[in-house]
Design a protein that fits this description.
homodimer; 712 residues; mainly alpha; 4-stranded antiparallel β-sheet; two-stranded antiparallel ribbon; globular; CSC1/OSCA1-like_cyt (chains A, B)
Chain lengths: 712, 712
């Protein structure tokens, strides 16, 4: 790829970014777009003012920038929770790392690279049509003493990153504990999920639970809620909710629309009456299925609540039954975080689902390589001319060729990647996780490893999947292969950063998709008077993106330091834009209290070890065997450091220590509201599908149904 | 190796076995040998009678056989503990497996092998000088349909073994629980070991422990014992004990020996007086060091006791402190099982010891190959003649050559292996384990894997260590290499079974080494009037041997079924002899309540998977690719079965479930002796090196010192 192609891509994407920024600055001030650009503020009722028209509204302004900049971490913690803080710290972590690496890379490594003569000497006058390779480590002469500068840079950056990783892990751990101490009592702290409850003949699950826990944990046991299989009821309630909304909608419309001809020359039918009857039928059906579900006890699972956090924690940590496959305990999620559909599924079904998901992930990885290969083909212009000879005349235009080689490949890859995140969420959701947050965490990991494998390795070793797998089956040759393949792809990854990083982030600010949705619904004039739905940030999409850029920066900083400025621009954009979005757009749906950080930590450690492997290969290739030998201790030390961090910090992210739980319990003993909380706790984990429904009673009034649709 | 050589080896070893059996039958009836052959009975006082001489005493008899045969499992459980029962069940497990495999192997596979024509047709008249290969699977024609019989045998035996493994794991788990229920309260059930206790300035470890547990576990906490660094005191006490014994010995001797000349023409010195003074000095020194040790608090570790088993268990299972590297908990061993020397060592020291042990194990494995190579050289007679030409005339004698090729190799290997077990115990003891039983368990694992690697793989792939390692670095080629190498070694392993199995087991009965020790001490007339020391069975030596024979049988049953009768004879011998030894010789020193079984289970699973790998290789080699493909599911299913067993049974062997603990605690509540037990518990974990010593007071009386030498 030539420098000109890269510049074209940068140009197009910069233009797009500017357009998005201007669009946002103008549209966000129009009250009709508040729903798109500030749903959170709207929902909180703090953005209703200012519907009066004035000229200022049409001019782009940058007030939001300073507002986003000034937001402190404490404000963020209180408004968006610890997860948002952790997310922002991932961005600042990368910012710190790449500022440090950027100084070393641009000021020291880049001049060294340019001074080499291995490739064509750089003609600065002709820079525009030359290749980027002259700026990379490939240009340094083999056996040159200058390579020791790269060697030192690898050591310096590794030490800096490890120090930062330790600092961050420590900081977030302490935040997590502080968050726990400051939080009010929450049902999931007092509750565990028990599965595989054995039931003796003539007894039922509820009695079993009651007798087991009153016998063995009489002092701490509080109550339990048996789980029912409610998938049928859930789908019925969904139908009923739809019908109910339609009915409400009909009532508010002019009366002539309430009648409809039946048949070709039939009489008019009162639609209100018709739907009303159908709703009645549905309602009766729901009640029937609900009582059926309450009688059938085929799930053998229950939420069990305790009087103290420590009580719940001991039962969770100790094997309860003589038979280790009975009375299996799991930590309960928060009541509104529970993912009901798969909660009640049997052990066998969850086991099979898990197997299916593994196979599906492998299939997806294999099939995804097809678009990647196409993308790789597109960057090769002469290949394209051979395939499509009729395009020759168009491809000869220099701008078109630059767009095709510089911008199109990463755009296409981008579009395909858009589909991956929802697929991964779907796969995680059928894997048997019991909460939305766990599904999102699992999807986040899946998307991350998918991205690393299918973008990084597939681009580096562009070839068949079997070729890639064969490389990893022969671990001794990995560094050599990486050293050849990775530096050659520097220019592709620069365009990738620009397309996927810059444009995606600014389009996130301009909320392109919600904007389009908003405009189409407006045009079709189907005003639904539902409340504004405040979205939550899709961590499973955004965290892997940042971590993948972290991997790119860490692996490329000493190979092709030119990539770092592009990454820094991206990170600055992401920093300011996501702070703004947390203020205006996203509200937290659940709180994992920082459980996403270990994913980031592991990803960084992987990036470091990968970088070391590439360094070993590069120094061998450049005939500096001493340097490649001296790199070997670095991955070993990095992995030992990781092992230490796992021992030191990871336990916090799995369960709270006894000391913390007992202290918090003691505090609560003096709290007068505690008994009230325990009363509420008893009913906190009732399946929404089993709550009584009262559509008929509500149908005349315009009140919404009592049943919430969140859990369905 | 020719059949004649094997028969020579069998002949020599059978003769040795008969000699040992006769020797035992006669000597065991002589009262002067009771100390060797029935120390346990002697110590229990039930074998003092019958010192009157009669002729019957000189005739070999088989009364002990029926006595050993009649011993029931319940009797064994009550007299030798659950560990002995588990050990015997390992033997019966192998017996069951090889009876089943033997029927299939001898009745079905052997005729099939013999009917093949791949190798030289067997001339039954000339059997004596032919090779054993004609009886192995190597003789079956390539591509023959008869190989499907071997295929079915592999499936049948795998299913049978897995069924038995499940049954045994289940049985031993239930025995373990039953043992726990029936046992009296034991200190280690109520106690945990806490390490890395943080100490604030101006406080000490004891206060730290007291305040932490009274704050967070006020209802269950009972007491604690801080650990001191006592290695210096221990060595001093050891010296003092030696001196004390010498003094006691002197007192009982005739008076002229009590004086000794000092210098060339010096005056006589009263030795009693001389030693007495030195003992006084030592005693004062011990007291000084004891008080020093009590003041220095550099271990930051303590045994913490609780009022209930469940209380101790919750503290053990939950992370206690906010800092996960503080207040680390471990299960406490029984007081007399504690291994004091390394208990108080620091975290860093234990970590380094662990590293050193790993390196030492690798070194041992590498160095051990030297005798193995020599052994392999000895089996090759012509090679020997080239090396030592002067031996030619002797080697030409047919009997000598048969002894050298048939018997000598496994004998030499055997002698070298004798040294491995003590080395492994030593390595385990410096690895930082806190109890004798854990050291023995770890040594058992080490010896097992050492045996498998250095006997099985080193014999199969006789070559340099690098060649062996290179095979395992290329996992795809393992089955093919195994299929070529393993069947060729069948005859060597038959002689190995005969030498290591038959002769070792009967020499165990005849207690050759203790017998020699007994005779030498008797000759030197140094009668020491110490009490009889009852030995405990060295599980770390005996369990790996049985498991290794299990591996041999499982891998060879379809390759060379001729090995099975030899194994069955060995197992029958082991069955009856070890039962006899448990009655007469060995007394349990500690009780792990069956924790050795998971080692046996894992070893069997490994043997099965290894057998499957060999089968895959063999069927590929014999040009039956369909069969080798159809074997593939078998290791997968075996590993899944193992995974299930790990989930289902392994938790029992790590910790007792809450249900069991609470039930047992409830039973104790009604027990009047419980408060007395708790009083004793407070002082149960005092370091024997810190107990007061009173040699001077005892010196005139012939009482033994108050301090026990067990812990030093």
């Amino acid at each position: 790829m030539l420098v000109s192609a890269i510049l074209t891509s940068v140009g197009i994407n910069s233009a797009l970014c500017v357009i998005f920024l201007v669009l946002y600055s103008i549209l966000k001030k129009q009250p009709s777009y508040y729903e798109v650009f500030a749903p959170r503020l709207l929902a909180e009722g703090s953005s209703k003012q200012g519907s009066r028209f004035n000229l200022e509204r049409l001019l782009p302004s940058a007030g939001w920038l300073s507002k986003a900049w000034k937001l402190s971490e404490e404000e963020m913690l209180s408004s968006s929770g610890l997860d948002a803080v952790v997310y922002m710290r991932m961005i600042t972590f990368c910012l710190k790392v790449f500022s440090f690496a950027g100084i070393i890379g641009i000021l020291i490594l880049l001049p060294v690279n340019c001074s080499g003569t291995e490739l064509d000497q750089i003609d600065f006058a002709d820079l525009y049509t030359s290749s980027l390779d002259a700026f990379t480590i490939s240009n340094v002469n083999s056996g040159s003493k200058l390579l020791w500068i790269h060697f030192s840079a690898v050591y310096a950056v590794t030490i800096f990153i490890c120090y930062l990783l330790y600092y961050e892990y420590n900081y977030i751990s302490s935040k997590r504990i502080a968050y726990f101490y400051s939080a009010k009592p929450q049902p999931h702290q007092f509750t565990i999920l028990v599965r595989n409850i054995p039931v003796s003949v003539g007894s039922n699950v509820s009695d079993s639970v009651e007798s087991f826990f009153t016998e063995y944990h009489p002092t701490t046991y509080l109550s339990h809620t048996v789980l029912r299989r409610t998938s049928k009821v859930q789908s019925l309630i969904k139908d009923a909710n739809k019908l109910y909304k339609r009915l409400l909608h009909l009532q508010s419309e002019p009366s002539e629309q309430k009648y409809k001809r039946v048949g070709l020359c039939g009489h008019k039918v009162d639609l209100l009456d018709h739907y009303g009857k159908r709703l009645d039928d549905l309602e009766q059906n729901v009640r029937l299925k609900q009582s059926e579900a309450l009688l059938a006890e085929d799930t053998h699972a229950a939420f069990v609540s305790f009087k103290s956090r420590y009580g719940a924690s001991t039962v969770f940590h100790l094997q309860q039954s003589i038979n280790p496959t009975h009375w299996l305990t799991e930590e309960a999620p928060a009541p509104d975080d529970v993912y009901w559909p798969f909660l009640s599924s049997s052990f066998m079904r969850r086991w099979i689902s898990k197997l299916v998901v593994v196979v599906a992930c492998i299939l997806l990885t294999v099939l995804f390589l097809i678009p990647v290969v196409v993308v790789q083909g597109l960057t090769n212009l002469s290949q394209l001319e051979v395939w499509f000879p009729f395009l020759k005349s168009i491809l000869d235009i220099s701008f078109v060729s630059q767009v095709i080689t510089g911008y199109l490949p990463s755009l296409i890859l981008q579009l395909f990647l858009k589909a991956v995140a929802p697929i991964m969420v779907f796969l995680s959701s059928i894997q048997g996780y019991i909460s939305h947050s766990m599904i999102e965490k699992s999807a986040c990991k899946k998307v991350l490893w998918f991205t690393i494998w299918n973008i990084f390795f597939a681009t580096a070793f562009s070839g068949s999947i079997f070729y890639q797998v064969s490389i990893f089956l022969d671990p001794k040759k990995i560094p050599a292969k990486l050293a050849v393949a990775v530096p050659a792809q520097a220019s592709f990854f620069i365009t990738y950063v620009v397309t996927s990083g810059w444009t995606s982030t600014t389009s996130e600010l301009a909320r392109i998709f919600p904007l389009i949705c908003h405009l189409t619904t407006k045009c079709c004039a189907k005003s639904t008077d539902e409340g504004i739905e405040v979205p939550s940030i899709p961590y499973h999409k955004d965290i892997p993106r940042i971590l993948f850029f972290g991997l790119l920066g860490i692996t490329y900083f000493f190979l092709a330091p030119v990539i770092l400025p592009f990454l820094l621009v991206y990170l600055c954009l992401a920093y300011i834009i996501f702070r703004n979005q947390f203020i205006n757009v996203y509200a937290p749906k659940y709180e994992t209290a920082g459980k996403f950080w270990p994913i980031a930590h592991n990803s960084m450690i992987f990036s470091l070890v990968l970088m070391h492997a590439i360094a070993v290969g590069i120094f061998t290739l450049k005939k500096l065997p001493l340097a490649s030998t001296l790199i070997i201790p670095l991955p070993v030390l990095t992995l030992l450091f990781n092992e230490y961090c796992r021992k030191r910090f990871l336990p916090f992210f799995i369960a709270y220590p006894a000391e913390v739980l007992i202290k918090k319990d003691m505090e609560d003993q003096n709290d007068a509201t505690m008994s009230e909380f325990l009363d509420r706790l008893v009913t906190a984990y009732r399946d929404p599908a089993l709550m009584p429904i009262q559509y008929s009673a509500d149908i005349d009034s315009l009140n919404r149904p009592l049943i919430s649709s969140a859990g369905v």
